[in-house]
Amino acid sequence: MTLGLAATLLCACSADGAFRDRSHDYRRAQLSEVLVVPEGMGSESLGDSFVVPGIDSHGKLPGRFEVPRPDPLHKDVEEGVVRIQKLNDDTWILLNGSPGQIWPRVRGFLSVSSLPVAHTDAVSGLIDTAWLQPRGEELPKERYRFRIDQGVQRGTSEIHVLQADARAEQSWPPASSNGEREEQMTRALAQYLADSEAASSVSMLAQQNVDSQGKVFVEREGERGDYYLRLLLPFDRGWASLGLALEKAGFVIEDRNRSEGRFWVALAPKEDEQPGWLSRVFGRDQAPEQARYQVRMQPLGEQDRTLRIDLSADEGTELSAEQAESLLKRIKGYLS
To answer: From CA 85, how far away is CA 106, in angstroms rounded?
Structure first.
C-alpha cells in the first residue's frame, strides 16, 4: 500500500514538475476591491504594508533633464598582454591579474625551468632561488629573487627580477650584479607568462600583501573641493608615467618643467569635431581651438611614495569640477 501511494505521488509530480514556477504569477495579478468592514467593527488592524508616501510637497523641476553619458573606460593594459617596462636602470614585467593569481604562475615557471626554490615569502611577494651554476665556467654562481607587486592599475601586477652572483655573498644587492643576466631571466619569464594561459589557482597569502584597488585614485578635497589624483609611486617613476599617460590620453605636451613637476598640455579635439576634408580644402569650418591646461605633480605631504596630480585650466580656458574629474579619470586610465 505504501509503495503504491509513493508511485502515485511520483507520477503526479512528474506531470507538472515537482515545483511550479511562480516567477511570472505577478503578471496575472488583478487589483482587488477595497475591503469593506461591517458596521460595529474597527479597522485599526487593517492597513497597507507598502504605503507610497505622497509627493505633494515636491515641485516639478524646471527645464528638461538629460541623463549624462557614462564616462568611457580608459585602460592602457590590454587583456592578456604581458609587457616589459623600463625606467632608467629599473625593469619590470607588467601584466593583468592580481598578485594572488600571478604567484602560482611564477612558481610554474620555476618548476618548468628546473630552478630550485630556496625561500618564499608569499605575504611580501618574494620568491628566492637556490644558488645556480650558469652554463660556462667563466660565469660565477648566481641566484634570483622574484618580487610580485600590485600594479598601478586595479587588477594588474608587476614582477621585478633581481640577480645576485657569488660576489654578493649572503646579502641581496640593491641592483643586479649582472644586468645582462637579469634581462635574460626577465625575458624568459615574460615569454612564459605570455605563452601560458592564466592559472585558475590563487595564492591567498600572496593576495594579502597588496591593496587590490591599485595605486592610483581619484579624490576630492571635501564635498565641493578640487579633484586630484593620488598616485602611490616614487617621483621619478611617477613623472615618467604621467608624461606617457598624457600622450596616450590624447593630450599634446607643449612644455614641461620637471623641477616644478609641471606639464603644459593642450587637449586634441575629438574625431567627430574635426572638419571634413572638403572644409579643410576650401577653408571653411575651422577646427575647434584646443583647450589648454596645466598638470602638476608634487609629493603629498612628507611621504616619499605618495604623489598628488592636479589639473587646472590655463589662461582663457574654463574648467568646471565635472570636467576636471572627467579629464583626471581619462589620465588615470593610462597610468602604469
So the answer is: 18
What end-to-end distance do the CA atoms of the chain give, in Å? 75
Question: What pLDDT was estimated at residue 273?
Answer: 46
The pLDDT tens digits for 93-146 are: 999 888 888 999 999 999 999 999 999 998 889 999 999 988 866 788 899 999
User: With contact defined as beta carbons under 8 Å apart, do 150 and 214 qualify?
Assistant: yes
- Could you give the angle at which helices 235-248 and 321-332 cross, rounded to 10 degrees? 100
Q: How far apart are CA 288 and CA 286, in angstroms?
A: 6
Find where cell 487593517 sits: 46
Interval 272-299: pLDDT, tens: 444 554 444 445 455 557 888 999 999 9
Contact (Cβ atoms closer than 8 angstroms) between residue 74 and residue 330: yes
Nearest CA-CA partner of 241 in 103, 126, 94: 94
* pLDDT attached to residue 18: 57
Partnered with residue 92 across adjacent β-strands are: 85, 160
Other C-beta atoms within 10 Å of 126: how many? 18
Q: What is the pLDDT of residue 97?
A: 87
Cα–Cα separations (whole angstroms), residue 284 to 267, 271, 272, 274, 281 = 22, 17, 16, 12, 8
DSSP annotation string for 204-239: HHHHTTS-TT-SEEEEESTTTS-EEEEE-S-HHHHH
**Digit-coded pLDDT (tens) for 32-84:** 777 788 888 877 777 666 766 666 666 677 777 777 666 555 554 445 578 99
Residue 156 corresponds to which amino acid? T
8 A C-beta contact, residue 229 and residue 314: no
Helix (H, G, I), strand (E, B) or coil at 330: helix
158 by Cβ neighbours in 10 Å (0-12 / 13-18 / 19+) ranks as: buried
d(CA 202, CA 99): 9
